[in-house]
Structures are given as C-alpha cells and as structure tokens.
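Provenance

Sequences were taken from public entries as deposited. Structures were produced by running a predictor on each sequence independently, with no templates supplied. The record for DNA polymerase III subunit delta from Bacillus coahuilensis p1.1.43 is shown for reference.
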Amino acid sequence: MINKIWNDIERGRFSPVYLLYGTEQYLLNETKQKMIAGALQEEELDFNLSVFDLEETPIEVALEDAETFPFLGERRLVFLHNPTFLTSEKTKSKVEHNTDRLQEYLASPVDYTILVIVAPYPKLDERKKLTKTLKKESVVVEAKPLTEQELKKWVADEVKILGVSIEEAALDLLLTLTGTNLQVVANEVNKLALYGGHQVSITTEMVDKLVARSIEQNIFILVDKVISRDIGEAVQIYYDLLKQNEEPIKILAILAGQFRLIYQVKQLTSKGYGQQSIGSTLKVHSYRVKLAAGQARAFTFEQLQKIMLLLAEGDYEMKTGKRDKKLIVEMFILKLA
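Predicted structure for DNA polymerase III subunit delta:
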C-alpha cells in the first residue's frame, strides 16, 4: 500500500490531506521527503513549505497557514507534527487546540494545500470522532514496524530497484546482523548494492564483509558461537568489542538482556504462544522472537536459570569491584561452555 502512495507522490498525484502515523521512523521520514521533492520546486521551499509542532502551536493557527494562498507557486505543503489530541496519551503541553476547526477543514479542504498530519504513535484513539473523520477524509500512511515477511519483501523490492538481487541466505544474514531497524537496513542495502556494482546478486560473503554490526548483534553472534561450542570465536568477538572501547559492564548487561529474552521466549513457547503473540507480550519485534526461539532450543530451563544466576553474580562482582571487569565477562563466556 505504501509503495502505491509513494508512486503517486513521485508522479505528482496528491490528495488534499494525508495522515502519517506509526513508529517506523524510516517510513515517516521517507514519505515526508518524497512529498517535499514531489510537491515543491527548490526555490519554493522558503515560501510554500510550513512545519508546525502541535505541542507548541494551536491547530487553528496551523490551519490559517494552510489556508493562505501559495506564493510564487501553485501549491503549499504544510506538515503538522505531534497531534496528541488524536491519542489517549497525556501530554505535558499546555497548548489548547480548537479541534472543531480541524473537523471543519476536513469537510472542505482548500485545493491549493497539501496538509500532512504526522502522528508518530503506535496507535490512535479510534473512539474519537476526529480520528474517525480524519481516517475517512485523508490518505492514510501507516508507518508500522514491518513483519519478518514484509521486511524481506521490502529488501527484495529495494535491491531490485537498485538493479541487483540478493540471495536468500544473504538476506537472512543481513537481518540477523542489522536487526529490524528499517533505516539501518536501508543504509546497508544501499551500501551492498553500490559495492556490488555490476555483480548481479548480493552474496553472504558480501554481507559478512561489509555490514556493520551493532554491539547487540555482536552479542547475538557471540551467544550463537557458544551454542555451537565455538568458544574460541566467542572469546574473540568479546576481545573485538573491547578493542572498540565497549565497556565490560555494558557487554554483560546486553548478554543478560539476550538470555532473559531467550528464557522468556522459551517459557511462553512452552505455554503454546505463537511468534506474533510472544512479540506482542514482550514488546519486541517478532523477528527477534524467532531468532531467540532458535537459540532457546539449545538450552534447558535449568541451564538458563543457572546462566541468569551467573550473570547476576557477574553484575554483583563488577559493581563491588571484587574482580577485574574484563575478566568477569571472559570467565562467564568460558563457563557457558
């Protein structure tokens, strides 16, 4: 759906009102940039582009601007950010909004302005009359985190646009290394396509060589090495993190977070929860749940409980200075074997 909206925008086919909502920042930003590039010439930006933060500006003031005729151009583009009045969330903002004014505008929007309401929230309050009206009278762009299958399709479509393809194993490795942050994935896909040049397909070797690993992804791989009993490689990953000036206490904390996730996923799986349900319950992306479930199969509940105890002991030793911090993490990795 979003690709169709993007295609219309790029071809200059605009609607009077758009509602962008969701927490996937890349989709929000990309849509806004496409709108700016498609709606206005560079020389018009100073005159016909307006951006309002509704936590600081009343909606009626922003709408007055939207109803102002464009200067030296055919249309105006007006962004309204942070419409907390569309949610059930409490806000510290002291700005009062005459939301009836927005209701009136939606009933008869001006034909020379593209009004874009940007709501970076996981959900809107569907009980509110204004929310219902806005969804009915606008083009809705839902910028929600993509599922694993949607993410894979997005990458496949993106590399196709860039003139290459990607092997299935390379795609799996890419998502393992980058996680599910779409901005990070997009940056790495562009880098891989550029590096590939005339090469038809992105390979696992290319991904392994070029994709930057976050500390969280390095910890995930470290755990995988422990599971496969490749302790030497696991320790080497730890040394590499130290060379990158990562603090042992931070490494230990992320290890604890990963094993806590593994334990929770194993526990919920044993109770019959599916991947999506576990993700919703734990408030983590379903792809992370899938990866943690794969790691969980290597451990019993008893082993995971012992590991959590070792992590707690390591944390205590670090905070009390009983042993060298670097040695504490290394000893933990060796004990996992």
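The chain has three domains: 2-142, 148-210, 215-336.
The chain has 17 helices and seven strands.
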